[in-house]
Amino acid sequence: AILRGLKKKGIQQPTPIQIQGIPTILSGRDMIGIAFTGSGKTLVFTLPVIMFCLEQEKRLPFSKREGPYGLIICPSRELARQTHGILEYYCRLLQEDGLPPLRCALCIGGMSVKEQMETIKHGVHMMVATPGRLMDLLQKKMVSLDICRYLALDEADRMIDMGFEGDIRTIFSYFKGQRQTLLFSATMPKKIQNFAKSALVKPITINVGRAGAASLDVVQEVEYVKEEAKMVYLLECLQKTPPPVLIFAEKKADVDAIHEYLLLKGVEAVAIHGGKDQEERTKAIEAFRDGKKDVLVATDVASKGLDFPAIQHVINYDMPEEIENY
To answer: Alpha-carbon distance 144 to 160, whole Å?
Structure first.
């Protein structure tokens, strides 16, 4: 069923991180995966957790309020939603093949707790969560990690940059048994290394490509433009390139200004940044993904971990503060 699902998504061959990571995880070892967005890392930790949960469910079906057995923590709601979608997709295919149904909860801010509790009440095998909301649910005893044995931290570097390290350490304290921990990160700065030392047990490190490198097949051009001429120049660039186009700016105010300017000029544009609420962000991303909108203007908050394979052109309105974000 899984192979069929991969074929449907046009995945024929495993990527380097999948070749090395999946067997490592299936063997039960802790692992650090250094890989960038687009390397196929999501399947590395989603496919094994599905396998582990199937095995558990076959031995003894999950009862009410039980679970999760597998927990995946993501820095942003968008990334959590994307990961949850992937889990649901493969679980559905397995169910179509007559295997026991697996339940997967999504616990993120901006969604009603009631909605999330509905799923959890029936017992869940897997949970995808953002640190803030998960902490909240654990403290209120709405979620229990008593039987959780599998933990994946996606984009750990970003979670720590966002100040979630304390939360994640607290989440660790809710685990009762021994757990397998996987940490995925695009980069390996000192603070992540220290964090990994305390969180993982004798991990295997798999490094695919330079830590922090972007996808290789990118042609880069730099243009010097006076501040006041930037907007007009941006529009000229857009008129020369077929959509979809992604535009990044550092500041929320710039994103809004660019978005308004483009709309005035008749460009089909949407914008996302940290100041917009969850629903707006999701709507904008979906409209852009489905080709209903031609241009997405975003701050780097929105960019991390989201993968738009169809994009041919990215414009950075200014230079990002962090070279790795670039």
So the answer is: 23
